[in-house]
Specification:
By secondary structure, the protein is α/β, with parallel strands linked by helices. It is 35% helix and 24% strand. Helix 3 (96-107) runs parallel beside helix 5 and helix 4 runs antiparallel to helix 5. The radius of gyration is 17 Å and the shape is globular.
Protein backbone atom coordinates (compact mmCIF):
# COMPACT_ATOMS: atom_id res chain seq x y z
CA UNK A 1 0.00 0.00 0.00
CA UNK A 2 1.11 3.55 -0.80
CA UNK A 3 0.05 6.34 1.54
CA UNK A 4 0.91 10.03 1.25
CA UNK A 5 -0.08 12.22 4.18
CA UNK A 6 -0.05 16.02 4.18
CA UNK A 7 2.70 16.05 1.58
CA UNK A 8 4.18 19.45 0.75
CA UNK A 9 6.95 20.45 -1.63
CA UNK A 10 8.04 24.04 -2.08
CA UNK A 11 10.80 25.53 -4.19
CA UNK A 12 12.63 28.82 -3.66
CA UNK A 13 11.13 31.86 -5.38
CA UNK A 14 7.80 30.12 -6.01
CA UNK A 15 4.71 31.77 -4.51
CA UNK A 16 2.92 28.51 -3.65
CA UNK A 17 3.88 24.90 -2.93
CA UNK A 18 3.94 22.72 -6.04
CA UNK A 19 2.66 19.85 -3.87
CA UNK A 20 0.24 21.35 -1.37
CA UNK A 21 -0.89 19.15 1.53
CA UNK A 22 -1.56 16.16 -0.69
CA UNK A 23 -3.23 13.08 0.84
CA UNK A 24 -3.83 9.80 -0.96
CA UNK A 25 -3.96 6.09 -0.20
CA UNK A 26 -3.45 3.46 -2.91
CA UNK A 27 -4.12 -0.18 -2.03
CA UNK A 28 -1.89 -3.11 -3.00
CA UNK A 29 -2.42 -4.01 -6.64
CA UNK A 30 -4.43 -0.85 -7.37
CA UNK A 31 -3.62 1.39 -10.34
CA UNK A 32 -3.93 5.16 -10.47
CA UNK A 33 -3.11 7.65 -13.20
CA UNK A 34 -2.18 11.29 -12.79
CA UNK A 35 -2.71 13.96 -15.43
CA UNK A 36 -2.35 17.70 -15.27
CA UNK A 37 -1.00 20.76 -17.02
CA UNK A 38 2.70 20.90 -17.88
CA UNK A 39 4.72 22.06 -14.89
CA UNK A 40 1.99 21.31 -12.35
CA UNK A 41 4.22 18.92 -10.36
CA UNK A 42 3.46 15.45 -11.73
CA UNK A 43 7.10 14.41 -12.15
CA UNK A 44 7.97 16.10 -8.86
CA UNK A 45 5.37 13.98 -7.10
CA UNK A 46 6.80 10.77 -8.58
CA UNK A 47 10.30 11.85 -7.57
CA UNK A 48 9.14 12.33 -3.99
CA UNK A 49 7.47 8.92 -3.84
CA UNK A 50 10.56 7.28 -5.33
CA UNK A 51 12.76 8.92 -2.72
CA UNK A 52 14.85 10.80 -5.28
CA UNK A 53 13.81 14.09 -3.69
CA UNK A 54 12.69 14.99 -0.18
CA UNK A 55 9.40 16.71 0.59
CA UNK A 56 9.30 19.95 2.51
CA UNK A 57 7.04 18.15 4.98
CA UNK A 58 4.68 15.21 5.17
CA UNK A 59 4.91 11.43 5.21
CA UNK A 60 5.40 8.78 2.52
CA UNK A 61 4.57 5.19 3.48
CA UNK A 62 5.21 2.26 1.16
CA UNK A 63 4.04 -1.10 2.41
CA UNK A 64 3.55 0.44 5.84
CA UNK A 65 7.16 1.62 6.03
CA UNK A 66 8.05 5.31 6.28
CA UNK A 67 10.36 6.13 3.38
CA UNK A 68 11.81 9.23 5.00
CA UNK A 69 12.79 7.35 8.16
CA UNK A 70 14.66 4.55 6.39
CA UNK A 71 18.38 4.22 7.04
CA UNK A 72 18.92 2.49 3.70
CA UNK A 73 16.27 3.84 1.34
CA UNK A 74 18.38 2.90 -1.70
CA UNK A 75 18.25 -0.80 -0.84
CA UNK A 76 14.51 -0.60 -0.19
CA UNK A 77 13.97 1.10 -3.55
CA UNK A 78 16.02 -1.54 -5.41
CA UNK A 79 13.93 -4.35 -3.95
CA UNK A 80 10.43 -2.88 -3.87
CA UNK A 81 10.17 -0.15 -6.52
CA UNK A 82 10.28 -0.11 -10.28
CA UNK A 83 10.67 3.29 -11.95
CA UNK A 84 10.07 4.15 -15.60
CA UNK A 85 11.95 7.37 -16.34
CA UNK A 86 11.11 9.75 -19.17
CA UNK A 87 14.80 9.72 -20.11
CA UNK A 88 14.99 5.86 -20.00
CA UNK A 89 18.21 5.78 -17.87
CA UNK A 90 19.53 2.70 -19.68
CA UNK A 91 23.21 1.73 -19.75
CA UNK A 92 25.04 2.34 -23.03
CA UNK A 93 27.61 -0.36 -22.20
CA UNK A 94 24.98 -3.14 -22.00
CA UNK A 95 22.90 -4.78 -24.70
CA UNK A 96 19.11 -4.80 -24.39
CA UNK A 97 18.90 -8.10 -22.50
CA UNK A 98 21.47 -7.11 -19.89
CA UNK A 99 19.91 -3.68 -19.46
CA UNK A 100 16.56 -5.25 -18.63
CA UNK A 101 18.08 -7.98 -16.44
CA UNK A 102 20.04 -5.47 -14.37
CA UNK A 103 17.41 -4.86 -11.68
CA UNK A 104 16.46 -8.52 -11.20
CA UNK A 105 20.10 -9.56 -10.97
CA UNK A 106 20.69 -6.83 -8.42
CA UNK A 107 17.67 -7.96 -6.42
CA UNK A 108 18.60 -11.64 -6.74
CA UNK A 109 15.41 -12.88 -8.43
CA UNK A 110 16.63 -13.09 -12.03
CA UNK A 111 14.15 -15.14 -14.10
CA UNK A 112 15.16 -15.50 -17.73
CA UNK A 113 11.81 -17.06 -18.76
CA UNK A 114 9.80 -14.24 -17.22
CA UNK A 115 12.09 -11.66 -18.83
CA UNK A 116 11.82 -13.28 -22.25
CA UNK A 117 8.02 -13.38 -21.96
CA UNK A 118 7.91 -9.75 -20.90
CA UNK A 119 10.07 -8.66 -23.81
CA UNK A 120 7.88 -10.55 -26.27
CA UNK A 121 4.75 -8.89 -24.88
CA UNK A 122 6.37 -5.50 -25.36
CA UNK A 123 7.48 -6.33 -28.91
CA UNK A 124 11.23 -6.22 -28.25
CA UNK A 125 12.03 -9.91 -27.91
CA UNK A 126 14.01 -9.85 -31.15
CA UNK A 127 16.25 -7.05 -29.84
CA UNK A 128 17.80 -8.97 -26.92
CA UNK A 129 21.38 -8.86 -28.24
CA UNK A 130 21.23 -5.40 -29.77
CA UNK A 131 23.31 -2.48 -28.42
CA UNK A 132 21.35 0.60 -27.36
CA UNK A 133 22.86 2.60 -30.24
CA UNK A 134 20.77 0.55 -32.69
CA UNK A 135 17.46 1.15 -30.90
CA UNK A 136 14.90 3.84 -31.61
CA UNK A 137 13.60 6.02 -28.80
CA UNK A 138 10.39 3.99 -28.64
CA UNK A 139 12.32 0.72 -28.41
CA UNK A 140 14.45 2.12 -25.60
CA UNK A 141 11.29 3.21 -23.81
CA UNK A 142 9.88 -0.33 -24.00
CA UNK A 143 13.19 -1.72 -22.70
CA UNK A 144 12.98 0.71 -19.78
CA UNK A 145 9.45 -0.46 -18.99
CA UNK A 146 10.57 -4.10 -19.08
CA UNK A 147 13.44 -3.29 -16.72
CA UNK A 148 11.03 -1.67 -14.25
CA UNK A 149 8.78 -4.74 -14.27
CA UNK A 150 11.27 -7.62 -14.47
CA UNK A 151 12.20 -7.81 -10.77
CA UNK A 152 8.50 -7.99 -9.81
CA UNK A 153 8.39 -4.92 -7.55
CA UNK A 154 5.54 -4.08 -5.21
CA UNK A 155 5.22 -0.54 -6.63
CA UNK A 156 5.74 0.80 -10.15
CA UNK A 157 6.14 4.53 -10.78
CA UNK A 158 5.87 5.33 -14.49
CA UNK A 159 6.55 8.81 -15.85
CA UNK A 160 5.01 9.17 -19.33
CA UNK A 161 5.60 5.48 -20.20
CA UNK A 162 4.06 5.86 -23.68
CA UNK A 163 5.26 9.38 -24.42
CA UNK A 164 7.52 8.45 -27.36
CA UNK A 165 5.35 5.76 -28.92
CA UNK A 166 2.96 5.79 -31.85
CA UNK A 167 -0.73 5.18 -31.20
CA UNK A 168 -0.74 1.41 -31.86
CA UNK A 169 2.45 0.72 -29.90
CA UNK A 170 1.23 2.95 -27.08
CA UNK A 171 -1.90 0.82 -26.75
CA UNK A 172 0.13 -2.41 -26.69
CA UNK A 173 2.64 -1.11 -24.14
CA UNK A 174 0.01 0.45 -21.87
CA UNK A 175 -2.04 -2.75 -21.87
CA UNK A 176 1.05 -4.80 -21.06
CA UNK A 177 2.04 -2.46 -18.23
CA UNK A 178 -1.40 -2.58 -16.61
CA UNK A 179 -1.88 -6.32 -17.22
CA UNK A 180 1.49 -7.36 -15.78
CA UNK A 181 1.01 -5.18 -12.72
CA UNK A 182 -2.40 -6.75 -12.17
CA UNK A 183 -0.94 -10.26 -12.51
CA UNK A 184 1.81 -9.48 -10.00
CA UNK A 185 -0.51 -7.55 -7.65
CA UNK A 186 1.82 -4.60 -8.13
CA UNK A 187 0.62 -1.12 -7.27
CA UNK A 188 0.91 1.17 -10.30
CA UNK A 189 1.17 4.97 -10.41
CA UNK A 190 1.25 6.38 -13.95
CA UNK A 191 1.89 9.99 -14.90
CA UNK A 192 0.63 10.62 -18.41
CA UNK A 193 -0.73 13.24 -20.79
CA UNK A 194 -2.77 10.57 -22.58
CA UNK A 195 -6.43 10.34 -21.66
CA UNK A 196 -6.58 6.83 -23.16
CA UNK A 197 -3.75 5.63 -20.91
CA UNK A 198 -5.17 7.47 -17.89
CA UNK A 199 -8.54 5.79 -18.24
CA UNK A 200 -6.98 2.32 -18.06
CA UNK A 201 -6.23 2.97 -14.39
CA UNK A 202 -8.70 1.96 -11.71
CA UNK A 203 -8.68 5.54 -10.44
CA UNK A 204 -7.70 8.47 -12.69
CA UNK A 205 -6.64 11.74 -11.02
CA UNK A 206 -5.93 15.29 -12.10
CA UNK A 207 -3.17 17.24 -10.32
CA UNK A 208 -4.09 20.89 -9.86
CA UNK A 209 -2.64 23.44 -7.42
CA UNK A 210 -0.74 20.70 -5.63
CA UNK A 211 -3.82 18.56 -4.97
CA UNK A 212 -5.11 15.37 -6.60
CA UNK A 213 -8.71 15.48 -7.78
CA UNK A 214 -10.46 12.37 -9.00
CA UNK A 215 -11.38 12.57 -12.67
CA UNK A 216 -14.79 11.59 -13.89
CA UNK A 217 -14.80 8.41 -15.99
Amino acid sequence: MLRLTQLYKTFPNQPAPIINGLDIEVEDGESISIRGASGCGKSTLLSLVAGFDAPTSGDILIGGKALLAMKNADAFRRHHLGVVFQSYNLFDCFNVWDNIAFTSRLKGNYDSHFQASLMEKLGIGHLANQPLSQLSGGEQQRAAIARALVHKPSLILADEPTGNLDEDTSELVANTLFDVCQQLNTTLVVVTHSEDVAQKAKTPYWLHKGQLKRERA
